[in-house]
Write a structure and sequence with these properties.
InterPro entries: Ion_tolerance_CutA, N-reg_PII-like_a/b, N-reg_PII/ATP_PRibTrfase_C
Helix content: 25-40%
Distance between the termini: 23 Å
Number of helices: 2
Largest sheet: 2 strands, antiparallel
Protein name: CutA-like protein
Shape: elongated
CATH architecture: 2-Layer Sandwich
Radius of gyration: 15 Å
Structural class: alpha+beta
CATH topology: Alpha-Beta Plaits
Organism: Magallana gigas
GO molecular function, one term: copper ion binding
Pfam family, one: CutA1
Number of domains: 1
Length: about 90
């Protein structure tokens, strides 16, 4: 998985979501899980590749949110776990 392969330091799996979206001209409503993946910027492409290879959707949602600030020891831990410089 993402953590085992060092693409992410932590993955929160949030169940119980319902997504409403348009696909191929139809409105769909489906249960989904939300993954909150903690990783380094340098690993985002690896995460996207992993999700695309393992997700059943043709167009899986993967977005990156830049972190401008945070708890320094936590951010350092992420970098150490995924193998980027601290």
């Amino acid at each position: 998985g993402l953590v085992k392969e060092k693409h992410a330091a932590c993955v929160n799996i949030i169940p119980g979501l319902i997504s409403v979206y348009e696909w191929e001209g139809k409105i769909n409503e489906d249960p989904e899980l939300l993954l909150k993946i903690k990783t380094a910027t340098s690993k985002v492409d690896d995460v996207i590749k992993y999700v695309r290879e393992n997700h059943p959707y043709d167009v899986a949602e993967v977005i990156s949110v830049k972190i401008d600030n945070g708890n320094p020891p936590y951010l350092k831990w992420i970098d150490e776990v995924v193998g980027t410089k601290a």
